[in-house]
Amino acid sequence: MRREDIRPLLYQAADRLPEPDLADTAWAGGLETRRRQRRNVVIGLLAALALAVVLAIGAGVSGSRNAELVPPPTTPSLPPGHVPPEGQIAGIDYWLAPPAGSERFLDRVYTPLGDRLGAPDDVDSLTEHPIENPAALMLEERNGRYDALLLGGDSTWARADLQLAPISSGSPLSSGAVSPDGRTAAFPQPGELVTLDVVTAEVSRYPLPTRDLRSVAWTPDAQQVLVSGPGKAYRVHVRGGDGEQSVVAIPPSANPASITAPFRIERDAVLRYRGNGEWAVDSELDLPVRTWVGQTFSTYTMTARLFVSDDLQQVPTKASQPQVVAAISTLRALPSSLLVLGEADRSTPAMDPQDVRQPGCCAVLGWYDDYKPVIQVRGWLLAWDVRSGRVQRVTELAVDGVALGPGIRP
Amino acid sequence: MEKSVDPDFASYVDARQGRWLRTAYLVYGDLERAEEALLHAFTRLSLHWTKVDDPDAFVQRVLYQPALVRWNRVRAFPDEDDPVKLALAELTGAQRAVFVLLHLEELTEFEVADVLNMSHTTVHGHGLAAFSRFRAALGAGDWRDAGDPR
Q1: For residue A194, what is the domain's CATH number?
Q2: Which InterPro entries does the record match to this protein (chain B) (predicted)?
Q3: How far apart are the first and last CA of chain A?
């Protein structure tokens, strides 16, 4: 047998096979295969996604379990610029304020008040230039009367068409004159309460039965003003008081500036204002207070007022009485803090005797934010961070008195 | 991929399916397996119809690969009494594929090596062994006497 004989043999062996017709079947099979491939890809992607979700949930569950069991490796960080407290007075941490004369060199808090707050030269009328969000209110004396000057959040001034008479304590400006919403300013006047709408420049007068009125304070809803004089106090509805008696007598205080809401610090206790015009004891205080000075100002969590202390063992003074800013927490979980306005060492050669902080020089004027009360310290406004203890300067005061409004906040 | 069959693909399959079915039948030794393998090869070709440069080589590579599996113990040409088929049944799958492609398709040893993904030496060895066993099975004597006419 030769090789060329094989081909006929193979042809013969494969003869008489049926003729196939595979084109349509093969094409249909290709379509089915392609469909199956796509379906497998989709199923694979879904399976991978489900696996990833299961793994993520498992990691989260195991992670949270670890978080419960394993303490964090580092201790909580302190606020920026934290200053350790000097010690404790009556169980409350206290810090020492920078000595008198050093205010100029403190870091500054930037506010619409600028670097130096003085009487402006060029002022528009309030009717022409409404102030939407006042940052400060001050009075300018002219011919025995007082003009109200308003500083807006955009650092522009406006003069109200309002002539205020002096009261028995002098200037009719209270620290709490500006309402919490910044819409209205209130002034005690002999025998009446005067309010000024800072947007419309509208003036309203509310006659009161007592002539000697010295202090005003707003309730947090900005609807009522608490007006007080020595041994007399009234609650006056200035807005939204329809159907209620406009003027109601409330329990007074010997110090007119003590009448504030929603808290007032007095008589070794923090008192909470109640809707019926009375105050209830919120917490007891055991501080070495000789007298409280100025009004009480509050945030949602803290309330602050300044007091003149008896001699403090912790902070001895020679030329003056120590004054202390008490920032008392109204939440049990938060700590209270004290800032002692002491005096510089008398042996310091550069010590100016005029820099001594005498009682009455200083008072709390409001809050810059939830944790920084603004304090008037002689010719300066300072901001004290109650969490870190850091003291910063707000502005230098070239006026006798100022009341702060909500526009001072960032 | 269109749902209706591509006319070019249909023409291509119609022109080759008869010849390749005979070849596959002799390689696999079973008509059903041969049809199944040929349908599988054409189905694979349909998936790549517009992208394949040499469709013949593509189909032949797919068509004969299953016949080369060594652990395939399916006997070829069962229940046959044709001596040629019985002689082919004596060969291994690889020998039968090489033998049929060399002598029926008349491919060169290099072309067979390319189709079956073997070396030329392997193809040559399978060809000699297959020829010798085929001749012996048909009672034609040793392959070294192949040049002598009988």
Answers
A1: 2.120.10
A2: RNA_pol_sigma70_r4_t2, RNA_pol_sigma_r3/r4-like, WH-like_DNA-bd_sf
A3: 109
